[in-house]
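User: Just a sanity check before I run the rest of the batch. Below are the structure tokens for the first item. I only need the designed sequence back.
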């Protein structure tokens, strides 16, 4: 097979990663009851009980409206509770339920576990360079042309 060139070869690896994340996420939904992105939200809420949707969106690098559906599904499935902020009744704060804490504590069979294993196999320079490249790629994809 002919070489695709650096950009297309890199993009092929990104698509391969995206596909692997989707497959793992679907498997997580079957085995622990939440997808990878939903578990990430639960992990952040678990680490910062009482976090607002805006704070959560900032932490994840997303627009708050992007989280609306995820938070609603997690709330309906009884993984988290929305509480009214006593200082500002217009604002909601999120905390995990017992069910959410169980998923937050799960370590096996998660996308995060695979990431931890991969990180353990790489040296710090490799990890730093990968993070730098991913940040550059995100910047270029978000850039207006």
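Assistant: Here's the designed sequence for the first item:
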């Amino acid at each position: 097979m002919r070489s695709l060139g650096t950009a297309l070869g890199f993009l092929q690896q990104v698509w391969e990663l995206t596909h692997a994340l989707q497959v793992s996420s679907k498997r997580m939904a079957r085995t622990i009851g939440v997808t990878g992105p939903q578990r990430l939200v639960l992990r952040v809420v678990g680490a910062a009980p009482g976090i607002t949707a805006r704070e959560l969106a900032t932490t994840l690098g997303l627009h708050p409206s992007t989280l609306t559906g995820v938070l609603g599904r997690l709330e309906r499935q009884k993984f988290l509770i929305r509480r009214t902020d006593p200082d500002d009744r217009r604002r909601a704060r999120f905390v995990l339920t017992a069910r959410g804490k169980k998923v937050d504590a799960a370590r096996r069979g998660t996308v995060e576990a695979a990431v931890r294993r991969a990180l353990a196999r790489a040296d710090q320079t490799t990890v730093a360079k990968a993070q730098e490249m991913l940040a550059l790629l995100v910047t270029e994809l978000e850039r207006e042309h």
